[in-house]
Amino acid sequence: MPNLEEDLEYNRRYKEVLHIFNVSLKNNKGLETVKSFIKAVIEYYDYAIELYFKKLYENKKIDEIPDSPIKRYKKIIEITKDKELEESLKYYKLLKLALNADAKIINEYRKSMVIKFRTMGGEEFEINIKMLKDITESVKKFSKIINKYI
User: Fold this and answer.
1) Would the pLDDT of 1 be above 80?
2) Which residues have a Cβ under 8 Å from the Cβ of 148 and sit 6 or more positions away?
3) What is the DSSP code string of 58-84?
4) What average pLDDT does range 69-91 have in this prediction?
5) pLDDT tens digits, one per residue of 13-41
6) Cα–Cα distance between 131 and 43 in angstroms, integer?
7) Cβ-Cβ contacts under 8 Å for 30 (sequence gap 6 or more)
């Protein structure tokens, strides 16, 4: 298995997250752009975590790869016991909820934009521009940490 710097799909997904935040969200703070960002972040995390488990499986350190992204998320935290890794994944569950929740945007196209989400279970939460920046920083941190494991 090639290392992460050589994995084209990994690099494409990582660059997509950074591009959406640094370019698309700067130019268009619309709801669809935010949803694209959230989807890109989740896909990036899922892909990187799956690569980690494929490496463990190939090296015969695990018998099977967990079958769902949320199980892989929980298992990587359990296996590594890495607090930095866990911290860099702190938005993962929230973003998974946001992806499938109803969303309403307030102050669209402004720096004070807030997206209000409501899950099917009635849970409500908000994501603002600062939080999107924090998520991007978490992705960057995760990228450095996961490189140690793959």
Assistant:
1) no
2) none
3) HTTS-SS--SSHHHHHHHHHHHH--HH
4) 95
5) 999 999 999 999 888 888 999 999 999 99
6) 18
7) 105, 108, 109
